[in-house]
Amino acid sequence: MIQTAKGTYDILPSDIHKWHYLESIIRKTCELYNYQEIRTPIFESTDLFIRGVGKSTDIVTKEMYTFKDKGNRSITLRPEGTACVVRSYVEHKLYADLNQLTKLYYMGPMFRYERMQKGRSRQFHQFGVEAIGSNDPSVDAEVIALSVNIFRQLGLKKVKVLINTLGDKESRKQYRQALIDHFKPVKEELCEDCQKRLEQNPLRILDCKVDKAHKAMKTAPMMSNYLNEDSKAFFKHVLEDLEQLGIEYEIDHSLVRGLDYYNHTVYEVITYVPGFGSQNALGGGGRYNGLVEEIGGPDVPGMGFAFGMDRLILALEAEEITIDTKDEVDVYIVSTSDKTEIYAFKLLELLRKNYIKSEKDYFNRKVKAQFKQADKLNAKFTIIIGEEELNNEQISIKNMKTQIQDVISIHNVEKEIKCRMEDYDE
Ligand code: HAM
Fold first, then answer.
1. How far is ligand 1, taken at its centre, from the CA of residue 308, in Å?
2. 283 alpha carbon – ligand 1 mean position (Å)
3. Which residues, judged by CB distance below 6 Å to any ligand atom, belong to the binding site of ligand 1?
4. Where are the alpha helices (DSSP H) in 258-337?
């Protein structure tokens, strides 16, 4: 038997209602905040991620699905959405009006070749937003507020916002050097990855799971001591805005995030629901001033986030939030003979054209078995087509809740059903 490729999974019809629910809340909330949807390709030129996500990141060094296509081009399945959205923003000159904040949202599959565990797969789904064009700290607060609002609407309670600042380019440069000076004397004691990170991206040492307990971690310099006045003022403004909006947060000085493009605000939303496992970051994001220019556009700032939809579904389950399933049909048509079958088929189409969700038998079942099937599909009504009745231009309709059956004319069946459907839900 051929099975799903390692690191991927099927979302079956029995679970799809959870995804539809999640997607509808995402869409509604993003549109409420005036974001517009953008859909970019699943694969892009590999260069985009090397430049966009960063040469030294785990994503680029270890996790990309990269291959040569038949034209010998290096192609990569997108590991994240920000670089793709920024590429599209630049390519289509969405910055035509530079005094405009371009607000975009997206959702879809992403690909990273990672070690599998609960909440971590190789094909996973993200939704994200990118607000490109303004350096106003209120944009950062608004983006964070939008994500918190989605959590609130989903009913997730056991979540926490962690926030930090990486400062501007200048502050970051100073901090980077301080980290190199701090970790250099113990380089040999660090894991292989951190030894490389020391030269390439020392900030990433701070969120290394392997070296977490090393004594040098506890005494490592803190970003907050290296922030220049502008960076401090920026962060203060973001925090004040969050307080104004009633959004609780916790400052986490060790939060650096795994992608190279961040500066100023970085944040993450984690779940602390028991039993969730170690992959407890539901999502996060931050400011990426400089990325648009890196990808060939003008020097405009950006801010955004992405959340793992698979992890959000797991969080909904872990918090035991039930989602109403509307797994039912309005009408099941029971046909009693071959002669009534043609009319049944015609009626089925007529009902569907009138937005009445309808179904019939496709297995030549006996009448009793057709009723059983109607029950299985949670039909609200059955329509029974008998030969004699049909000759008199009549059919029977049965309310499956009250079990009351009436004979009605075959003319205007759809109107009759719509009327009865209104009474049914009362
Ligand atoms: P990220 O932190 O790499 O950020 O990914 C965001 C979220 O995607 C993670 O917190 C997690 O929930 C989910 N995720 C990542 N990898 C996996 C995986 N292998 N399996 C399941 N879920 C996963 C970004 O991708 C940035 N582009 C976010 C951003 C947007 N920053 C600014 N704008």
1. 6
2. 6
3. 80-82, 112, 114, 119-121, 124, 126, 128, 130, 258-259, 281-286, 288, 304-308, 310-311
4. 291-294, 309-318
What global pTM score does this model have? 0.92
pLDDT, tens only, 81-96: 999 999 999 999 998 8
CA 130 to ligand 1 center in whole angstroms: 13
For residues 305 and 282, give the distance between their C-alpha atoms in angstroms, rounded to a whole number. 11
> Of the CATH numbers 3.40.50.1100, 3.90.25.10, 3.30.930.10, 3.90.1150.10, which one belongs to the domain with range 13-168+228-318?
3.30.930.10
Calculate how far, in angstroms, residue 60's C-alpha sits from the geometric centre of ligand 1: 14
What's the fold here for domain 331-420? Rossmann fold (3.40.50)
Comparing CA positions, the residue from 290, 360, 370, 364 lying closest to residue 332 is 360
Atom 9 of ligand 1, residue of closest alpha carbon: 283
Q: pLDDT tens, 221-259?
A: 989 999 999 999 999 999 999 999 999 999 998 898 878
Q: Which two tokens stand for residue 399?
A: 């309310």
Instruction: Enumerate the β-bridge partners of residue 358.
Output: 331
Number of H helices, E strands in the chain: 15, 16
